[in-house]
Amino acid sequence: MNSIPDRSDPTRFILIGTSHPGNVGATARAMKVMGFSDLVLVRPRFADVLIQEETVALASGAADILVRARVVDTLEQALDGVTHAIGTAMTPRDFGPPTLTPREGFAALAEQTPAHRLGLVFGSERHGLSNEDAYRCHAVMSIPTNPHYGSLNLAQAVQLLSYEWRQALGGFGISARTPDPELADGAAVQGLLSHWEKALVHLGFLDPAAPKKLMPRLNQLFNRAQVRQEEIHILRGVAKAMLDSTPPQRPGQQQQDAIK
Asked: Model-level pTM greater than 0.85?
């Protein structure tokens, strides 16, 4: 494997003693989704884990991360070039680095200048991060979870921390999948109201001799709804259908019953 550290990515994800190939692939996917690419494995269970079928399948389009990933023998080698290491573990009971939550810890780290080359260190699925490895870190990070059930899959933890770190760095913008709606202007709404007024008179729902507050209330309703231009066309189509229908026998009586 390539033994030259990737200096182009300021964030490195370090997995120690990973036993499940799927977690390596899912980690690569989680990293790429959040715009990170530097992956280092320390003593994985399988020497060929980066090219195993399950690994590649779970990477799901992030095979380029796997191609550039490195396998090393020690955490010391994995931390080469890293200026700030954060472990994902409980703080050792006797002594050790401070424990941070992701949101507050990453926010403070992102503000430091000059910017650090960050290493996020994850232990094995079965045993987690050892105390000895935690001592090598500047801080440890604990993900706030349900106090009665805090079991996180390795790749899930990578996804959560990579998301929080990306947000602290400024995040990514999102692109709307649909265009901004074209709201109807005042003239279009008044045209709709005029059309509906004729239709309601035609149906006998509105008595033109005693209109009361029906049309102003409909005006307020359409204003609150922020009617879109295409909705104007639909509602005018409804009004046209009403005008084309046969009117009831007693004009005005329905409004007298419904609008007081």
From this structure: no
Count CA atoms within 13 Å of residue 55 on its CB side. 21
Each residue of 1-43: pLDDT tens digit? 444 555 567 899 999 999 999 999 999 999 999 999 999 999 9
Residue 236 burial (10 A CB sphere; 0-12, 13-18, 19+) = middle
Q: Give, in order, the Cα–Cα distances in Å from 231 to each of 17, 58, 165, 167, 227.
A: 59, 44, 43, 38, 6
Return the residue matching tokens 């390596």. Answer: 24
| Phi, then psi, of 55 in degrees rounded to 5 | -60, -50
Sequence-separated (6 or more) residues with CB below 8 Å from residue 227: 183, 184, 188, 189, 192, 235
Whole-angstrom distance, CA of residue 119 vs CA of residue 81: 9
- Positions of E strands within 123-257: 139-141
Express each pLDDT in 202-226 by its tens digit. Answer: 999 999 889 889 999 999 999 999 9
